[in-house]
UniProtKB/TrEMBL annotation:
Biased composition regions of type Low complexity, renumbered to the chain: 456-478
Record keyword Transmembrane present: yes
Coiled-coil region(s): 491-518
Descriptive protein name: TPM domain-containing protein
Domain of life, per lineage: Bacteria
Bilayer-crossing regions: 164-183, 195-217, 420-440
Keywords recorded for this protein, A-Z: Coiled coil, Membrane, Transmembrane, Transmembrane helix
Region (Disordered) residue spans: 453-489
């Protein structure tokens, strides 16, 4: 069923609910595969009332309370209606003709579940709350608590910590038993168990730790989403391929309404008149789909599915406001490089100037989408003929849907460094024990029975295991940061790194030069002011993505200043320039020529981090077009993009320097040379009225 077969997504969804009370979009196989529908149906039956469930991607569908009402009106059946996004979160609920505390149950679910709960787990918890008879009380109690619940699953970072701790325990505890026991026996003149007993006890302890650690740290996946099958992963591709065999233009039913029937007809006529085959699809693109939200990869999968009859130019449009537009050549007789260059300005949505002009003219989002698609077809029509070509840039393969959420083995990664730290800690405790017993002997504090090992045990507990890991992080590489971070990721990362920087600064401040101490303090102070405006010593729960990103950029700039001061590097001028492509990469250490989206001038030299500089590097013999393509690819994949303050989860991502907030570039400046921590600190203080 295509968009022109239904007048709205609501009509399409109502038709699907007539077949089954649970509709899972085939566009979310990585988190909510079609094979998981029976589990959702089982939970829907537990509510005790007729229940209709929609699990939809974040783009395409016009979300909100009106959608459920429109679906109910077309379906004509009373009951409990729920709408979930692809990654869980608070469900949208509506009741028609049934009396259940659905809104309170949804509110309680939001407060009682952490961020890593998946859609099925969220639905299951919602039903449990609904059936408990205490939905109202639990919703009120959750609103008063104000505390984020503990995570349900182990992240990859958590697994690294677990491996490190296991390594410390596996070597440290047995060595501690043998070493301290041996020394105590010597100190007491042989009146203590010898090695014949100590070694078996140490070996038994190591066995218990070695066998017990995997039982305690038994998570194998970083989330609880159902694992997709091969059929789940190809369901949408097969559906789109069938639709595209019948015509050159296809609009997904969930995107119905983005293009009017007249606009759709004009696009079809223009596509049919072209000298080269064109396959145009308007579909939601989500990181949970089979292509991980990459339109170029979806085009590759569609061409593979259609075979040689599918040769042509593929135009894949994200069904979102100002969504990305991917235009890829698979076998059409046009120059792929010329196609890429000519359509570059269409790829990232409308710029601010065009958007303002459209708004004044009264165009809605669909109007802007139509104009971009129409312009893309015009450009294709004007391109000169060439031998059948391939994509200008081959898309990267996505993560395997099964293994992407699998955790590394416990005895891998940081386990090796942990074993070394355990041995060092055991020797340190032995030294403390020897010193303590030596002092006791020299001062005549009494027999060994009066001394004990309490002090040594306390020292073992304070062994600087984490400090050993922190030291390994001074390698100068940019922190791992997604180009389109979610608000949840930004909040969690800012909270963790703010605590770490506070601890490090408190520990090392006395050893830093005055200039470095001032720079770190300025970054730390401004980040704290920005992230904790409520003054409760926690990152504000309602902080938006631009605020969180600016705070995290200050934290990482402060980390760079601390590392420079600790190693006596840096000029001490107080200016720390951050990476232009992504300020969350931390301080810039090099320059590279690049052009940011929306800029009309050519590429120019900008400050970047070492990782971005390496990504931009092209061998000296490369042609200018190869260099330009490489630069565009790097900018597209590494440029920090954020959602505007107050935007819905379905809203598009924008380059950070265009988003209102502390990282926004001054009007008319574009991306500039990358923000400095000094500029961000000044903006934060001015914004909050702190001088």
């Amino acid at each position: 069923m295509a968009a022109d077969d239904v007048d709205s997504p609501a009509a399409y969804l109502a038709a699907q609910l007539r077949k089954s009370p649970v509709y899972l979009s085939d566009q979310l196989p990585r988190t909510n595969p079609l094979s998981a529908r029976p589990a959702f149906v089982k939970e829907a039956k537990r509510t005790g009332v007729p229940t209709y469930v929609l699990v939809l991607p974040g783009s395409g569908v016009r979300h909100g309370k009106g959608l459920l009402a429109a679906v109910h009106e077309r379906l004509g059946k009373d009951g409990l209606y729920l709408q979930f996004g692809g990654d869980g979160g608070r469900p949208e609920v509506a009741t028609f003709g049934v009396d259940v505390p659905a809104r309170n149950a949804a509110t309680a679910t939001m407060y009682e579940l952490p961020y890593d709960a998946g859609t099925l787990e969220t639905f299951r918890h919602f039903v449990d709350v609904l059936r408990s008879g205490h939905a109202t009380e639990r919703a009120e109690r959750g609103g008063e608590a104000g505390e984020e619940p503990d995570k349900l699953y182990t992240s990859r970072t958590d697994r690294a910590d677990q491996s490190f701790l296991t390594g410390i325990l596996l070597t440290g505890v047995p060595l501690l038993i043998v070493a301290v026991g041996w020394y105590t026996r010597r100190w007491r003149g042989g009146k203590w168990p010898g090695l014949r007993l100590l070694v078996p006890v140490a070996a038994a302890t190591a066995l218990v730790i070695g066998v017990g650690a995997p039982l305690v740290f038994d998570d194998t996946r970083s989330d609880g989403d159902p694992v997709p099958t091969a059929a789940d992963m190809r369901a949408r591709t097969d559906r789109l391929a069938r639709a595209m065999r019948s015509g050159p233009v296809h609009v997904d039913p969930l995107a119905a309404g983005l293009l009017s029937r007249g606009e759709l007809g004009r696009l079809r006529k223009r596509a049919e008149r072209l000298d080269v085959p064109v396959h145009l699809a308007v579909v939601p693109l989500d990181t949970a789909d089979e292509s991980a939200g990459d339109g170029e990869l979806l085009a590759k999968k569609l061409h593979s599915r259609l075979g040689s009859r599918g040769d042509g130019v593929y135009v894949i449009a994200d069904a979102a406001d100002d969504g990305e537009l991917e235009i890829v050549n698979y076998g059409a007789e046009v120059d792929s490089a010329a196609l890429y260059d000519a359509t570059e300005d269409l790829r990232f949505g409308t710029d601010e100037e065009s958007r303002g002009a459209n708004d004044e003219a009264g165009d809605d989002d669909g109007g802007r989408l139509f104009s971009r698609l129409d312009e893309a077809l015009r450009i294709i029509d004007r391109l000169p003929s060439a031998p059948p070509g391939d994509p200008y840039l081959d898309p990267l393969a996505p993560d395997d849907p099964v293994t992407e959420d699998e955790l590394p083995a416990l005895y891998s990664g940081d386990f090796g460094p942990g074993t070394l730290m355990g041995a060092v800690a055991a020797l340190a405790v032995l030294g403390v024990t020897a010193a303590g017993l030596g002092i006791a002997r020299r001062t005549g504090l009494g027999s060994a029975r009066r001394i004990g090992l309490g002090g040594a045990s306390a020292t073992a507990r304070r062994a600087p295991g984490r400090a050993g890991r922190g030291a390994a992080s001074d390698g100068g590489t940019a922190p791992q940061t997604p180009a389109r971070p979610s608000t949840g990721w930004l909040r969690r990362t800012a909270r963790r790194e703010l605590e770490e920087l506070n601890d490090e600064f408190e520990r090392l401040s006395d050893t830093l030069p005055d200039a470095a101490r001032t720079r770190v303090w300025d970054c730390l102070d401004a980040a704290t002011l920005l992230l904790d405006q409520e003054g409760d010593n926690r990152v504000d729960a309602d902080a938006d993505a631009p605020t969180l990103a600016a705070g995290l950029a200050l934290i990482r700039g402060g980390r760079g200043a601390l590392d420079d001061g600790r190693h006596r590097r840096g000029s001490g001028t107080g200016r720390i320039r951050l990476c232009t492509l992504n300020p969350l990469h931390g301080p810039a250490t090099a320059t590279g020529k690049l052009k940011l989206p929306g800029e009309t001038s050519g590429a120019r030299s900008r400050s970047v981090c070492a990782g971005c500089r390496a990504a931009l590097h092209v061998r000296g013999t490369a042609s200018p077009s190869t260099r330009a393509a490489r630069t565009a690819d790097v900018v597209g994949s590494r440029l920090l993009c954020l959602r505007a303050p107050g935007a819905a989860r379905s809203a598009p991502y924008e380059p950070y320097h265009r988003v209102p907030g502390p990282l926004e570039a001054p009007r008319g400046v574009g991306g500039g040379q990358g923000p400095t921590t000094e500029e961000i600190v000044r903006r934060v203080r001015e914004q909050l009225g702190v001088h």
